[in-house]
Design a protein that fits this description.
Rossmann fold, six-stranded mixed sheet, 32% helix
Length: 257
């Protein structure tokens, strides 16, 4: 069942699942010599259906934060809530199941399996997800390839596609299990300018399908297109934009209209 086929109650439940709240989140890496603070007491909220940017220079903690939001890594302190579910309280097995149902991930370097065709890469995500009946897999895969404008390339290997085309396939793979949240780590960072605009436009359209899209970028122009944004520097929130409720590094609560 896709988002467009949900009942009003199911749609409401899916919208609730897309609510993201981060409270006093910190990540510290300790060694015998010293402790390195990667993220320092971050607090912010991401509304449902929002195009949300995590912006900052290299080394600011952006990718670490994204790994925490997806449950790939665990915080030193603080908590992350999706629809009031606290990620840090989940076991590894439960967290993996939660991630498969609720989050689609788009990587900077695509991470497509080179020996599988575009369609097979998308089908593999369906098989691993286990959320959609097998008899619907091919139809669903083609539907998602059509959404990203890549249905005519379904039988091609990644090596036969441009970087922009590979990232479109990666987006199709991320949405095929119909998760309420899509996260993207520098999704345009490995693309030429034209392909970057096309891929970002595609991510932006996903919010029209009731998806919450969270993306990491160091590109100020791309960050400015977000409806909500936090700016990171040295692991702390130093600013944000409209549509975002966040807590600045000085611990002053700021709520933008």
């Amino acid at each position: 069942m896709t988002t467009s086929e949900l009942t009003p109650l199911q749609a409401q439940q899916r919208e609730a699942a897309a609510q993201v709240r981060v409270e006093n989140l910190s990540k510290v890496i300790a060694s015998k010599a010293a402790q390195t603070v990667i993220l320092d007491s971050l607090s912010f909220a991401i509304p449902v259906g929002n195009l949300f940017a995590i912006n900052g220079p290299s080394g600011s903690g952006k990718s670490t934060l994204l790994n925490l939001l997806t449950g790939i890594d665990r915080p030193t302190s603080g908590r992350i809530l999706f629809a009031e579910q606290e990620l840090h309280k989940m076991s590894e097995n439960r967290l993996a199941r939660w991630r498969g149902r609720n989050v689609g991930i788009v990587f900077q370097f695509f991470q497509l399996l080179p020996t599988l065709t575009a369609q097979e890469n998308v089908l593999l995500a369906l098989e691993l997800g286990g959320l959609i009946p097998r008899k619907q897999w091919r139809t669903r895969a083609i539907e998602c390839l059509q959404m990203v404008g890549m249905e005519t390339y379904a039988k091609r290997l990644p090596s036969e596609l441009s970087g922009g085309q590979q990232q479109r396939i990666a987006i199709a793979r991320a949405i095929v299990n119909d998760p309420p949240v899509i996260v993207a780590d520098e999704p345009t960072g490995n693309l030429d300018s034209k392909s970057a605009v096309q891929v970002f436009d595609l991510l932006e359209t996903l919010t029209q399908h009731h998806k919450t899209v969270i993306y990491v970028t160091h590109d100020r122009d791309l960050a400015a297109r977000a409806r909500g944004r936090i700016d990171l520097l040295d692991g702390r929130i130093v600013g944000g934009s409209f549509g975002a409720s966040y807590q600045k590094a000085e611990r002053i609560e700021v709520i933008m209209p």
